[in-house]
Amino acid sequence: ADINKDSDRMHIIHVTAEMAPIAKVGGLGDVVTGLARACLSRGHTVEIMLPFYECIQKQQIKDLALITTYESYQDGNWVLTNAYRGEVSGIPVVFIEPSNHFFKGQFVYGGSYNELEAYLFFSRACLEWMQVTATQPDIIHVHEWQAGALPLLYWDMYHYLSLKKPRIVLTIHNMEHYGECSQEQLSKSGLDGSIYATIDKAIDDRTIGHNPERLSLLKGGIVYSNAVVTVSPTYLKETLCTGWLASTLLRNRDKYFGVLNGIDTAMWNPATDSFLPVKFNAQKPEGKKLCKYYVQRGLGLALEGTLDGNHLPDIACKVPLVVCITRLVPQKGLHLISHAIKRVEELGGQMVILGKASDVRVEREFEGLAKLHNQGPSTRILLMFSEELSHMLYAAADMVLVPSMYEPCGLSQMIGMRYGAVPVVRMTGGLADTVFDMDDQSNHDRANGFVFEGIDEGSLNWALDRAFAHYRDKADEWNGIIRKVMEVDNSWNNTAGKYVEIYNSVRVRL
Ligand code: ADP
């Protein structure tokens, strides 16, 4: 027997709003692809079901073919729907394409259709597809509020029809997105929305007096799933203590687990990454310096020497490059990100921000900062989403900054580490589970970055100052730190097994 394969093979279907790289907005897309690939390589049968967003680039899908035309219910009508099959990054994907206006538009989110109703439709259309094709996986793994109604639809409808075998696992990547829904909207899926308007089902507890008109698909999903997972052990603890879902999660504590996300080490590999002009690895990190040079030159930042052929003169690297790659939303610590620009400049470093804002006011604020700084020698603020640039920047970075107010898991610090960027992070959620302060003796061997606790500028200064001091005063040690962070194993190989255990604990053998 192959020791890398699980002996007990399962069939797992993910139902998700995102998948990297074809429909990725944030970490959700990376997690689905990474976990699916890890389970495939352990010998399981894995498929991903995804809305066929109009913005998906079809040339990125291998062997795309129409497989089923069927009808799925929506607000009193049966909507003609196409299911396509194709392969993305080696993973089989089923694309659901309704014939109405859902999922049309230039982007994954923010189209001119009603998002809640579109994902309610999608959730039911996935189950309907399984029913019409007699597909009965062991596990339906749903993600976020977008698929939160699927467990309700499964247990209160399709399980009474022909789907008997599947059990449902829900992963919550971010508790702040709760899928607010009225009874009436939920009824459009064909369920009777009024049945779910109780505290022990889907009433949104945040409203005083518990407004029965306000339901939360995320809460409903928690109540109706066989197991609920969130993306780091520390975030699990935080969500049991604070936040509006705490009481629901406490009531469901027995089936609630914290499993740290991994990163897809095939997609994120500095030794083979086709976006990088020069590859490198922990044993041969020299290429990283060249990546930094190319980024500095490409972005017009001040250079510390000139390239001689493919060799950098052995100049003293005194100018640390800090990168921050993030969605620009309050969760990510916007005031600390903009403060970091100032502090890094004062300390004589360079900083590049790659970020996309979804709120116009935030966009304007950062556009203002970009105008102010982008002509200078030390700061670049790039307001866009670019997979390619993100790879280049992680490779070029000496430090990766993640100053989040809260962070369920965080991939950016893990990706940064794999590319030899030392993390500077706020101690919260998954950041606290993956980054351990260099100056804290109790961290011993696992020390791998710089951590601060407060949400004020002084706290961030303290961590940045220490990181810069290490970089400049202990150059030899710094090379050791780079090697060490590159060797940290945050891969899915390490954590996918925990998901397999959870799948096994809830599956049934008919
Ligand atoms: P979240 O899921 O909250 O967005 P994570 O840290 O878990 O945060 O995941 C973010 C992912 O999205 C990382 O892969 C990061 O590199 C990527 N990312 C975020 N913003 C951008 C951007 N503007 N351009 C390219 N990639 C980005």
Biggest sheet, strands in spatial order?
3-4-5-2-1-6-7-10-11
Low-confidence residue ranges: none
- Tertiary shape: globular
Strand count, sense and barrel status of the largest sheet are: 9 strands, mixed
Small ligands present: adenosine-5'-diphosphate
Q: What is the CATH superfamily of the largest domain?
A: Glycogen Phosphorylase B
Based on DSSP secondary structure assignment, what is the total number of beta strands?
Answer: 17
User: How many domains?
Assistant: 2
Percent helix = 25-40%
Give the second-level CATH assignment, the architecture of the largest domain.
3-Layer(aba) Sandwich
Distance between the termini: 25 Å
Q: What is the helix tally?
A: 16
Strand percentage: 15-25%
CATH topology name of the largest domain, in short, is Rossmann fold
Q: What integer is the average pLDDT?
A: 95
Q: State the secondary-structure class.
A: alpha/beta
Summarize this structure as a short list of keywords or feature phrases.
single chain; 510 residues; alpha/beta; Rossmann fold; six-stranded parallel β-sheet; binds adenosine-5'-diphosphate
